[in-house]
Amino acid sequence: MxxxxxTLITSALPYANGPVHIGHLAGVYVPxxxxxxxxxxxxxxxxxxxxxxxHGVPITLKAKKEGVTPQDIVDKYHGxxxxxxxxxxxSFDVYSRTSAKIHYETASEIFKTLYDKGEFIEQxxxxxxxxxxxxxxxxxxxxxxxxxxxxEKAYGDQCESCGSSLNATDLIxxxxxxxxxxxxxxxxKHWFLPLDRYEPWLREWILEQHKEWKPNVYGQxxxxxxxxxxxxxxxxxxxxxxxxxxxxxxxKVLYVWFDAPIGYISATKEWxxxxxKYWKDPETKLVHFIGKDNIVFHCIIFPSILKAExxxxxxxxxxxxxxxxxxxxxxxxxxxxxxWLHEYLEEFPGKEDVLKYVLTxxxxxxKDNDFTWKDFQTRNNSELVAILGNFVNRALVLxxxxxxxxxxxxxxxxxxxxEALASISKLKDxxxxxxxxxxxxxxxxxxxxxxxxxxxxxxDMEPWKVxxxxxxxxxxxMNVCLQITANLTIVFEPFLPFSMDKLRRFMNLERLDxxxxxxxxxxxxxxxxxxPELLFEKIEDxxxxxxxxxxxxxxxxxxxxxxxAKPAKENIEFDDFAKLDIRVGTIIEAEKVAKTKKLxxxxxxTGIDKRTVVSGIAEYYTPEEIIxxxxxxxxxxxxxxxxxxxxxxxxxxxxxxDGTLAFVSPDKAIKNGGEVR
Length: 677
Fold this sequence. Notes:
- It is found in: Cytoplasm.
- Its cofactor is Zn(2+).
- This is Methionine--tRNA ligase.
- Its EC number is 6.1.1.10.
- By secondary structure, the protein is an alpha+beta fold.
- It has three domains: 244 residues, HUPs (Rossmann fold, 3-Layer(aba) Sandwich), CATH 3.40.50; 143 residues, CATH 1.10.730.10; 102 residues, CATH 2.40.50.140.
- The protein has 20 helices and 25 strands.
- The strands form eight sheets. Strands 19-18-17-20-23 form a five-stranded antiparallel beta sheet. A four-stranded parallel beta sheet has the order 3-2-1-13. A four-stranded antiparallel beta sheet has the order 5-4-9-10, with no helix packed on it.
- The termini are far apart.
- The mean pLDDT is 94.
């Protein structure tokens, strides 16, 4: 640590084709924010850089689908993301975007520098081209049948069914997403970064000089390097992105993986004219916070770009996290299987820190982890409320009750008092060591152990009993409790900033820096505290059930979306169909059939007569809502007795894949008895 004067923290740029969800938060933004707040609390110089990644094919596909421009899409989601981060308390020094003018200039300049130095390879190859759309097709603009699992909607870069990486030319029966036509192969020129040139240097830099990197990061890098690196394209045939700034590159843009990491640099430039001290001074420590899917870009490709440019520092660490699942299933933006940050902020006002706490306590630091709403509730009620909130509330309530809120002077300390106070310093060392090594889950546990220490001390000392026999001893007990409480405002500050603002108000304290953590004289005798409110509140079962129901509804909608229609039955002759006499009728009476869940007894005016029909629709309609409804009824079906009632016909119903039923009805009024043909 001592060789660095400052720390530059970057967090992966969220992709601006949708909002931010809890997977993004747990993997990247919460740990990055904890680290930034911790270093600031230590008085260190910190730059915490963020921004939206706004280029690439998914943006253009979404724009095409919605009938708007790519700029419209990124403006919408950049706004949602930026506002959500601000409300959630992610403490960026700057939050920029890759569609900004300064980013175009910075990315172009770095590309041009590498181009002028001869760092790229020019290659001409055949790529798919849509003749009707008059453009080359990026991988995501091509779909076809996967050659490995026969999934018919695989993309040109990946099959989302079996997960295989593909080349567009591997697809069976490829089609253009733009026109639906079969594309042709056409020659095009692109520029490639020859990663194989950097392989010996990368082996030395990562495998020898950075053995302290997290095992998941180190292991993935080693696997890539052992597999051998190949040249990688840095340009694309697209209209949306940073134009390639050389002659002969018209209609081409920088590949999004090339320009996005440069967004860290352009955002820093936007923030300060002194940006070079953060990016070019070897006394700056650079740390990238990312998810595991970005390891190769931040550990191999981006460092190779910076190495080739020659004047930039390289990352000191890349503490990537694994993935967070949701209720046992992989989070998916396309399937809406997520807890969206902007929705959480609306539905759980004032509970920003609860989500931060749960995501940190359950962080996917070494393996994929699972978020469940039940665990969210349990951690809030059993830890934040019952441990941290309970201790500080009791300490402050008793101080107000016994001493009118004025902190009493401690008398002579007993052995147990000294042990409790000494434990604070030990816990500080443990938390600090964990934070310095990017073990945020472990650090949070250490902070909560300090609250547990206070809870146990208070429960063991029982000042509410001792006050009856030894009021002087209670002064010491309460002084110790309040010293622990003051320490909690420091140790939890990186993790629960909103809650610690509240606790400092209760304690009538200014923010204390990290160097004060462990001291046992943080609040002096005679200092007056305020009357407390609840620091955290219980979350009830009904609140959690509402969130579970919301996810179940999403799952049901996804199943309906994915369900395929049953194949058609065997062909019949027209004469067979002509035997069916289907009429339009109106339901004039309806009632439930006793002792059944599914059956309704209906009286229907068919235009021919008024007849009784028994129908199994009681789970989907109430009798009251269907009286007056026009329906289609098969009137020449032989009568059949159901529960002792003779049913004279059958109502036509449409069935969803989940079994739900809906009437087959005319879209405008038809005279009863009208034939369905």
